[in-house]
Every structure is written in structure tokens, then in C-alpha cells.
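User: I'll paste a sequence; please echo it back and then give the predicted structure.

Assistant: Echoing your sequence first, then the prediction.
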Amino acid sequence: MKILKKNQISGLRKDLSIYIHIPFCEKICPYCDFNKYSKVDQLIPDFTQSLIKEIRWNSEEFNNSKIVSISLGGGTPSYINNEDLKSVFDSIKNNYYLDDKFEFSIEINPADLDDSKLELYEEIGINRVSVGGQSFDNKILKRLGRNHDSEKLIKSLELLSSSYIDNINLDLIFGVPSQTLIQWEHSLKMFLNFSFPHLSAYLLTFEPKTKFYKDLNQKRIFEPEENEIIDMFNLTLEILNNNDYYQYEISNWAKKGRESIHNLRYWNSENYLGFGPGSSSLINGKRMKNISSLKKYIQLSKNKVSPDGLYSEISTISEEEKMIEYIMLNLRLNKGIEHNDFNQKFNKIFIFKFKEILKELNNNFLVESNSESTFLTNKGKLLSDYIFSKFTEEISL
């Protein structure tokens, strides 16, 4: 991987997305491996000022770009106070050109939502909200370490339903230890009651460095049986398909025309800037990654006058890496890999280059191929990590 200097990255004159990482949480969930911090509220004011500096520092190079989507993630963006959030948005508004129809999304915790936050969201132009509900069952919520119960989740969703926002996503998790099919069905049907246009249904993964991973290895908890996961996934397909939602990505379902613009741009490897500790940017085939340490991020921001000092890495993406990312990201999408697009991008014939892998995966009913594309089957969507590894091994030979 070739390492580049910042001045070797040319400025943009086209659509751009922005991701802002706000790493604060009231408590750390046992399954989460994102860059996050709890019980450090005293650092929020300094973090906010550091974030504003980083946003401003990048504006000279990118202020002629058109911002088509902004996503506030974390962590828990709804955890910080209204004044800090408004000052972050003002720094973007004052330094970048925002498209008239840009998607502005925020992830929220049900425990944080109230009328004052909704008033602020409307004031600054947030037009999409993603709610980290995870379940409508109190036993599952407790097992996931959430700081809300089902009653609070329902109240927050009712508050959103009566607000100005009509583009609402709900996050739900299945495959939780001891979760039953009946509990999962209840959560799906509760989601339908609200008629939201989007659902993210995530299969729980046991990520290294999380409490769940440690508990799993020490046999304090156990993964659900494979047949239980399959039953939950098939139930999801049945219920959502019967209610006019379509699966456009492995974990994401939407009504037609209500897909997440920001997420689609990410999965299609479009240009985006990341702000905040641990965030990444992708600019014209080059990747910059910020340092992850919150305290170091704040300290360096106080001493530097450009974003260079915040990067832990600036690198160009090799052809092999581009191909791996292209395959992984496109197979996540329902449309899969479009053969002509792959052939043009990499000057290789997809079905010839991966002939043996495709034969194996087709024989095991993990992918389907036609003259135009290759895409995951429903069975393949549950084994996507294995499928990705097969392509990665072949490309890396």
C-alpha cells in the first residue's frame, strides 16, 4: 500500500458525502465494537471544538464540492447537547455547499429523544432519523445492555411519528443469545405498526474486544443454533416482503424510493469525508483514517492548523484492494455484481476470472448468476463473510 502526502490528494469538484463520528455513549453495549467512550462528558466541549476545527480545515480543499448527504453516527450523536450539535452543523453550513435535496441523517438512542431535540433537528434541517431500538422485548433489551425499555422505545417512535420527519429507520437485532422466534416476530410486527419506510435488521455478530465475544469464549453465553438463525431470517423475508418492503442490502429493507442515500453512496464507493476520531474518508481512490484516541484527537487539534496531524494513515488503494472492496460492497446489495461494470472497471471478465469460485458457490446455492449479474441467494446472505473470504483469497493469490 503506497503512502501519500496530503498535498497529493487533488480537490473535488463533484458530489460528496460527509460522515461525522460522535463517539459518546451513556453506557457501552456488550456487542458494540465501534469507537466509543462513556463517562467522559467533561471532554465533550473540547471534542466539539476539535471537530469544528477539523471541519473548517478541510473546507478549503472541498468547499466547491456539493454535499449530497450528511450522516451523524457514533457512538450516540443524540447524546450531546443541542448547543454542541447546532455548532457542528453551523460549521458545515458555513464552510460547504449543501445540495438543495441533501439527505441529513442522525442516529438516535430512544432514551435521548424529546421535544427540544426534535425542534433542533427541524431547525438545522435533519430529514432522516435512525433509531437504535434493537428490540421491543424487555428481556432482549436487557441482554443487549440497552438503556431503554420497550415502553420508552414505543414512546420515542410515537413522538417521531407525530413530528415533521417522515424518513425514519428503525434498527433491530436478531440472533441474540436466548432470543426466540416469537420474540423476533413480535419486534417485526411492532415495527410494521408504525409504517416507517425503512428497517435495518442486523444479525448479531460477536466481534473481538466486545464483552459478548469474551462471554462467548468463556461459555457464559451461547450463539443461537444455525437453524434458529435461518428461521429468523426467513421470517423476516416473509413478513417484510408481504408488506411491500424490499431488501436492497443484506441488512436493509425499504419501501421503494426510500433507500438511504448516504449508505448507498458508501456501498457504491462514492467519495465521502469522515470527521471525528476513528473516522475514515474515501477521496478519488485514496483513503484517510483519523486517529482513534479521543484524547489524542483533542490534543492534536489544539496544536495543529491542518487536518494532516489528525490522520493515522493516508494511502492509495491498490487494484487488488479496489477489486476486493468492489466485490464485497456490491454483493451486499440486492443487485449484486453487474458483470459489464466489473469488466469495464478492472479490464477483466468477471465470470472467467472467478469461474471456479462461482461454480462452487452456485453448486452450494450461495450465489446465482445470469448473463448480466451475480448476486447472493437468501442462503448466501447468511454466509456472506464466508463468500467474501473466498473471493479475497482468489484475488490475493
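The radius of gyration is 21 Å. Confidence is low (pLDDT under 50) at residues 1-12.
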